[in-house]
Write a structure and sequence with these properties.
This protein is mainly beta. It has one helix at 16-28; strands spanning 35-36, 43-45, 57-65, 68-76, 95-98, 112-119, 124-133, 141-146, 170-178.
Length: 181
């Protein structure tokens, strides 16, 4: 999809090909398939040892219409997944997750995103909120995820909100933000 519509000139012959390009193809992007970016997705830690997915799975997809970017991530922990060194404090590892397109650095709208972590081994769900940021990755990141309503809640990492992670635990997040371009 282009961001600028064609400038038509007086007397120009409108052909089927031009209509397809300027109307049909633009309109069809609203109904297009989501784009997978699992291969370039990064699950990282702001400091310390980085987590590694091992035999777990990552699903990362997005759809971008104009500058509006919708995304979803699902990380399923495997038996060989490592979690980084964590620490559970505001200055500890603090997980982040890369975004599909760089966020606008001048965006002053709603930057908070909902996150759900499913501890399948303990049958628990933890809801948290993260911030869309231009930090940590060329495409920006979802970072500083914490549990709302908890005084001095640590940012989520290898020891918070759950003391131990296990195979089949799942981390879900999805959101919408304004991209830089």
């Amino acid at each position: 999809m282009t961001f600028a519509p064609r400038t038509w000139v007086v007397g120009e012959v409108v052909t089927a090909a031009l209509l397809n390009q300027e109307v049909r193809d633009q309109f069809n992007t609203f109904f297009g398939a989501w784009t997978d970016y699992s291969g370039t997705f990064v699950w990282g830690a702001e400091v310390g040892t980085q987590p590694a997915i091992g035999n777990g799975t990552i699903v990362a997809r997005y759809m971008k219409i104009g500058r509006t970017t919708d995304y979803l991530h699902r990380i399923t922990i495997g038996s060989t997944t490592t979690y980084g060194d964590g620490g559970g404090t505001l200055s500890a590892a603090n997980y982040y997750f890369s975004l599909p397109a760089a966020p606008s650095s001048t965006w002053n709208g709603h930057r908070s995103q909902a996150v759900i972590w499913r501890d399948d081994s303990a049958s628990l769900n933890q809801i948290g909120y993260g911030v869309i940021s231009t930090a940590n990755h060329a495409n920006g990141s979802l970072r500083q995820i914490s549990t709302p309503g908890t005084a001095s809640a640590p940012f989520w990492d290898s020891v918070a909100p759950f003391a131990s992670l296990a195979a089949n635990d799942v981390f879900y997040h999805q959101g919408r933000y304004e991209a830089a371009a």
